[in-house]
Amino acid sequence: MRPFDYYTPESLDKALSLLDQYGGKAKVLAGGTDLLVSIRAGLLHPACLIDVSGLAPLRQVTEDRDWLRIGAGLTHAEVESSVLLQERAPLLVEAVRTIGAPETRNLGTLGGNLASGLPSADTAPPLLALDARVKIVSSNAIRIVPVTDFFRGPRETVLKADEILAEVLIPSGEQAGAGRYLKLGRRKALSLALVGVAVWVEVGPARKTFQDVRIALGAVSPTPIRAKGGEAFFRGKRIGIDVIEEGAQWVSGEARPIDDFRASADYRKEMVGVLARRGIESCLNRLGVAAA
Ligand SMILES: Cc1cc2nc3c(=O)[nH]c(=O)nc-3n(C[C@H](O)[C@H](O)[C@H](O)COP(=O)(O)OP(=O)(O)OC[C@H]3O[C@@H](n4cnc5c(N)ncnc54)[C@H](O)[C@@H]3O)c2cc1C
Fold first, then answer.
1. Is ligand 1 within 6 A of the CB of residue 28?
2. Mean pLDDT estimate for the chain
3. Domain 5-51: which topology?
């Protein structure tokens, strides 16, 4: 491991000016559960680490009329134990509970999970399904980016070298639907997702049709994605077991998984359909709606 400078800036402005000063040679350090592994493995050689884990603006959760605002520096354990998030974003809370072990969740952060750009990042599918945005700051600009536009490729996001992911924004307002995150790993716990499926279901006023179904997939394409074709299939359709089965096949068809040492592409594709079906059934169950 090559030596590097290390800073614990006292403010977000100071962190941003350090990023400017190092001109692309610095890395933002949050929990370090991903970054330090890459540095130790010799895959990255930053000249400087800027530790943002103590910055108060990145560690708040608030809600206003339009947005639930979650600081990117919140650890997974903090997301998990936040009463506001349990109430207002249970789909995200369900997903962070599947991440690693308690040690990883005590250190790893929401922002680090997204910024790592891993296709298997467990917080990505729920945030995609919730139509979330991210607030990205640099020393001279603030931009709000939909999570659907955030990921560019494996380990690649829209974040520039001089930027910090500051907040995750989830639309607030009445929760008229129900969500589920289902993850398949090689083990039931302590395992990266082979397939991750987040589902959000809203039903029509007579509770006989699907009004809105949002489905997001992790670990089965170069980036986490929304299954737009499957979503369109469900919209307005009668709530029935045959419809759910057919729609789940549509969703499966949108996955573009790879073969690797953990699972074959065919298996992952098949399991996308299985988890999508189970997710929708489970959401309907939570809404007290029976599929005939
Ligand atoms: C044993 C183990 C098990 C794991 N299990 C899982 C799992 O089940 N599911 C899963 O999704 N992940 C898992 N991970 C991966 C990792 O723990 C998570 O992705 C974690 O959320 C990363 O967050 P972090 O704060 O540690 O990020 P860091 O390691 O600090 O940073 C990761 C990347 O994000 C950048 N970054 C961090 N914060 C910001 C920010 N605010 N703004 C801009 N850039 C930023 C860093 O520069 C770096 O490039 C596991 C890791 C380990 C070691």
1. yes
2. 95
3. 3.30.43
